[in-house]
Design goal:
Blueprint lengths: L9 E2 L15 H7 L2 H11 L10 E3 L1 H7 L3 E6 L14 H17 L11 H7 L3 E6 L2 H13 L2 E6 L5 H8 L4 E4 L4 H15 L2 E2 L10 H21 L5 E5 L4 H14 L5 E7 L4 H8 L23 H10 L2 E5 L1 H12 L16 H10 L2 H7 L6 E6 L6 H8 L3 H10 L1
Parallel strand pairs: 3-11, 4-5, 4-7, 5-6, 8-9, 8-11, 9-10
Antiparallel strand pairs: 1-10, 2-3
Helix pairs in contact: 2-9, 4-6, 4-9, 6-7, 9-10, 10-12, 13-14
Length: 412
């Protein structure tokens, strides 16, 4: 059994998020980005895919008692479509949506993903190449989607993406190109090469002139949020969600804001301290990039530039932004692998535990507890965005293989 780690986090205080607006309506603009009709379409499409099943929501009562709150729930995305992360809902769905648009225009009719398996349509798909930059999980999803629907795929990885994550992408038949620099440099290279070579970018980050595909990615993510809302029963009072470019965080925040308005849960965005572009943007009151190597163990969150679409929602929808150290993430990976009391053991990757780490840190800080209204009645929800997407690194950090942790969980 693990002991509770003592974690230190940094919060934007007084006020938590200077731009937040709890009373503002979700509004038409945000509904165009992430709205109920688009989620309904994503649900229809994705739930029909082979292998679809809602991922589990784990209660952690022993950890909740230790932290002095009513409940903790962890949405475990490790089994999503066999890809190891929630990204399976985004990149592959965006590939399908792009192919339906492009090939439907060529054929003069409306297509859905079932049509993409027709021989005539699949033959046309073979002439299309999709591409993106990735820290690992998004690229794996895009490569899987390309294989699933019969188009070609080129994925760009930057200098610090591990070989294990690179190999996992290549296993789906994608060409993998390693580039110098950080994630944002790889995004620019993928975009430039796509323009030169007639490829279609399937990015999870948006920027001026590039909005439609990232919107599809985020809409796919919302299916995970809808599942969690149905599974949890009583609405959470607080949600701590990790962020890279902000797409996941915006998907979660937008879901509850659209439905609950000002009564939505307190929403806290969590980033690595070495790649906290959303935190810096909140402080500045406008979009800010973080430069440099963005060197963090939380590879899926190593992003220096905010997605513009995500910022449309998070700028006023988030209650606080915070940053955590890599050491806090490692402590929480170990905590979930060797949990308190009778809690279920969970295989959680480096990026999956950022929300858990921030919540523990906040609950150990009287100032943060007061600021966020945390107390014995709090019901906290986390989104465990990945399992051990790099098994070798997981074993090194946790001191036990992901397979062994999973075996203990199933045996309990």
């Amino acid at each position: 059994m693990s002991s509770l780690p003592s974690l230190s986090i940094e919060l934007v205080l007084n006020p938590a998020n200077p731009q937040r607006s709890r009373d503002e309506a979700y509004g038409a603009r945000r509904s165009e980005i992430l709205g109920a009709p688009a989620l309904a379409q994503a649900e229809r499409e994705l739930s029909a895919w082979q292998g679809y099943a809602p991922t589990p929501l784990h209660a952690l009562p022993a950890l909740a008692r230790a932290l002095g709150v009513q409940s903790l729930h962890y949405k475990d995305e490790g089994g999503r479509f066999g890809l190891g992360s929630f990204k399976a809902l985004g990149g592959a769905y965006a590939v399908a949506r792009l192919l339906c648009r492009e090939l439907g225009a060529r054929l003069g009719r409306t297509l859905d993903t079932r049509d993409l398996q027709q021989p005539e349509v699949r033959a046309l798909s073979a002439g299309i190449t999709v591409t993106c930059a990735t820290d690992g999980n998004h690229g794996r999803s895009v490569a899987w989607g390309a294989q699933l629907f019969g188009c070609a795929c080129v994925i760009y990885v930057h200098s610090t993406v591990s070989q294990g994550r690179t190999d996992a992408i290549a296993a789906y038949g994608a060409q993998v190109v390693r580039t110098p620099g950080n994630y944002d440099d790889a995004v620019r290279r993928a975009d430039a090469d796509a323009k030169e070579r007639g490829r279609f970018v399937i990015s999870d980050t948006s920027y001026p002139g590039y909005m439609d595909v990232p919107r599809d990615v985020m809409q796919g993510y919302q299916l995970m949020v809808q599942e969690a809302a149905a599974q949890i029963g009583e609405r959470p009072t607080h949600i701590f969600v990790q962020a890279g470019v902000g797409g996941l965080a915006a998907a979660v925040c937008g879901y509850f804001w659209e439905r609950d308005g000002g009564a939505r849960p307190q929403f806290i965005v969590v980033e690595p301290e070495r790649a906290a572009c959303l935190l810096e943007s909140a402080r500045a009151g406008q979009l800010r990039a973080v430069e440099g190597e963005l060197d963090t163990l939380m590879a899926g969150l190593a992003c220096g530039e905010v997605s513009h679409l995500a910022w449309e929602i998070l700028e006023k929808g988030a209650d606080a932004f915070c940053a955590i150290a890599d050491a806090a993430a490692v402590d929480c990976m170990r905590l979930l692998a060797h949990p308190l009391g009778g809690d279920r053991a969970i295989v959680a990757g480096e990026s999956a535990v950022a929300g858990v780490a921030a919540a523990i840190g906040a609950l150990q800080s009287p100032a943060a507890r007061a600021q966020l209204g945390l107390g014995e009645g709090s019901r906290i929800l986390f989104f465990g965005s990945e399992a051990a997407t790099d098994p070798a690194l997981y074993a090194q950090l946790v001191g036990e293989s992901a397979a062994a942790v999973a075996l203990r969980a199933e045996a309990a």
